Amino acid sequence: HTHSHTHTHTHWTQLSVQFRSGSLRFCSQSPTFSRCALPLICSSLLGPQVQQILSEFQLKTEELKEVMRRMQHEMNRGLRLETHEEASVKMLPTYVCSTPEGSEVGDFLALDLGGTNFRVMLVKVGGDEERSFKVETKHQMYSIPEDAMTGTAEMLFDYIAECMSDFLDKHHIKHKKLPLGFTFSFPVRHEDLDKGILLNWTKGFKASGAEGNNVVGLLRDAIKRRGDFEMHVVAMVNDTVATMISCYYEDRSCEVGMIVGTGCNACYMEEMRTVELVEGEEGRMCVNTEWGAFGDKGELEDFRLEYDRVVDEASINPGQQLYEKLISGKYMGELVRLVLMKLVNENLLFNGEASELLKTRGSFETRFVSQVESDSGDRKQIYNILSSLGLLPSELDCDIVQLVCENISTRSAHMCGAGLAGIINQMREQRRQDTLKITVGVDGSVYKLHPYFCDRFHKVVRELTPHCDITFLQSEEGSGRGAALISAVACKMAAYMLTQ
Ligand SMILES: *[C@@H]1O[C@H](CO)[C@@H](O)[C@H](O)[C@H]1NC(C)=O
Ligand SMILES: *[C@@H]1O[C@H](CO)[C@@H](O)[C@H](O)[C@H]1NC(C)=O
Ligand SMILES: *[C@@H]1O[C@H](CO)[C@@H](O)[C@H](O)[C@H]1NC(C)=O
User: Using CA atoms, how far apart are residues 288 and 280, in angstroms rounded to an integer?
Assistant: First the structure.
């Protein structure tokens, strides 16, 4: 990561201007310096070092193209039978083949389990005159108690069934045997649309006896044990897939789904002939890339910095999900904190002194990154956050912290954009189209809540995908609704197969 002098110089000019208008604290303390001389001295003392540290986060277009090429290469290895085992990007078949057509009418129940909150939703899907869809939902959140998360699988699924029973009672629909779609956002190896083996719990779940088992089976058993209602579990999908499907209802070109929140993942419709893990040549199947694991076989070593290594080593899964760790909200705040600590240790920030809180892992939350970057220019927001961490920042400190946040969230957007560009180029090549018109459904807190993430992200994706016309669509109520719609498709497909 070398940067030309002019580049460095331009950046520094901005910083010293901010300094001059801001922290005069240093100047007025030293009567021997004139007001304008000091910032120049400071700039030559501090500037290049801060610059140097932040420059490592700035990726050139050539580097992003390289990330994109490597991503596409790994995707192809994941798709091919002979390389699938060793590929870092697993490209898991989802068995979601066709996307819904405009005729499903009916009620569906949707479950959404992906974190400490569990959601039950009643969805009414109706086709209206213009062959578009009307989707109405009623939903309720239940929080999962600690003992259900960490006890046995039976305890967890009994609790889920209990919530469902409560929901059905409240809406007076316990007597109906509704089709059920299950958004289950953990790593799963699908054997069919309604059969998936849990590979690993993540996000703090530990319930024993679930890993290695069919999740739909566990749910069906729990419903049977209760015996007070019946359900027809037709489909289980990942939140990424659910995002794609739910956006498809608004835009029929939506064939990519992506999540950038606590985690980061993407799926897209791949040509069946390329999905070697599943027999069949016709049509397309949705492939869950599991691209968070990109880099786990060394593909990102030349892009990972010392801070990334510290974050990884302190995580619950060292050496795994390395691409996700460069991007997702779970790690962004901590990366900022590590860079701030580096600057403090080099005596470039907070007078070289960190507060106890700043020294504490996890204290700089990812939402602070958004807040720091949305500061209106008076530094109030930045000042408040830093004081809440026990610091007494100068105005220059505030400006440096803002630059750190900008650089880290920008790297996240650019890295993620390079990955998506890999997917889109893959689609264009596989479809042998000169130009590809495609819509990407997106969900996730980083994408939705960070003030500049999506602009920076869109810009990079478009730069790296010539001959593509890309629309980005934010999913509303993503996962639960997607699962319900997928169960609609599954029912329709089942009905179709019965009549054959
Ligand atoms: C990164 O930090 C530099 C200062 O080192 C700043 O000039 C630049 O604007 C920042 N880049 C981004 C993309 O935020
Ligand atoms: C599903 O989504 C979650 C969150 O995006 C991710 O952690 C998990 O690995 C995904 N995978 C599968 C196959 O369900
Ligand atoms: C996931 O499961 C595999 C085997 O099923 C195991 O080797 C691996 O360590 C697990 N990963 C995590 C993060 O628990």
Answer: 18
Ligand in closest contact with the CA of 199 = 3
How many angstroms does the Cα of residue 81 sit away from the middle of ligand 2? 21
Q: What is the pLDDT of residue 404?
A: 97
Contact criterion met (CB below 8 Å) for 450 and 417: no
Q: Tell me which of 58, 340, 402, 414 to substitute to probe ligand 1's pocket, judged by most ligand atoms within 8 Å of the beta carbon.
A: 58
Give me the helices (H) in 283-394, please.
306-314, 322-327, 329-345, 366-373, 380-388
- 463 close to 425: Cβ distance less than 8 angstroms: no
Residue 168's CB is within 10 A of a number of other CB atoms, namely: 20
CA 335 / ligand 1 centre spacing (Å)? 16
Rounded to a whole number of angstroms, the distance between the first and last alpha carbons of the chain is: 61
Q: Is the model's pLDDT at 126 over the cut of 70?
A: no
Q: Which residues are catalytic?
A: 203, 239
Cα distance between residue 314 and residue 320, in whole Å: 12
Pocket of ligand 1 (CB under 6 A): 11, 14, 50-51, 54, 403, 406-407, 410
* The pLDDT of residue 268 is above 70: yes
Check pLDDT > 90 for residue 100: no
Ligand 1: residue whose CA is nearest its atom 7 = 11
Residue 453 near residue 367, CB atoms below 8 Å: no
Q: Decide whether any atom of ligand 2 lies within 6 Å of the 187 Cβ.
A: yes
State the Cα–Cα distance between residues 165 and 149, nearest whole angstrom.
Answer: 19
Burial of 217-253, coded b for 16+ CB within 10 Å and e otherwise, reads ebbbbbbeeeeebebbbbbbbbbbbbbbbbbbbbeeb
Whether the per-residue pLDDT at 258 is higher than 70: the answer is yes
Q: In 259-321, which ranges are continuous DSSP H helix?
A: 306-314
User: What number does the ligand 1 atom closest to the CA of 57 have?
Assistant: 1
- 74-96 confidence digits (pLDDT tens): 999 999 999 999 999 999 988 87
Output the six-digit token pair for 446. 């980083």
Closest residue CA from atom 11 of ligand 3: 200
Dist CA 12 CA 493 (whole Å): 61
**Could you tell me whether strands 188-192 and 195-198 are parallel, antiparallel, or unpaired per DSSP bridges?**
antiparallel
Tell me the CA–centroid distance for residue 474 and ligand 1, in Å. 28
Residue with tokens 């869809």: 133
CA of 409 to the centre of ligand 1 (A): 11
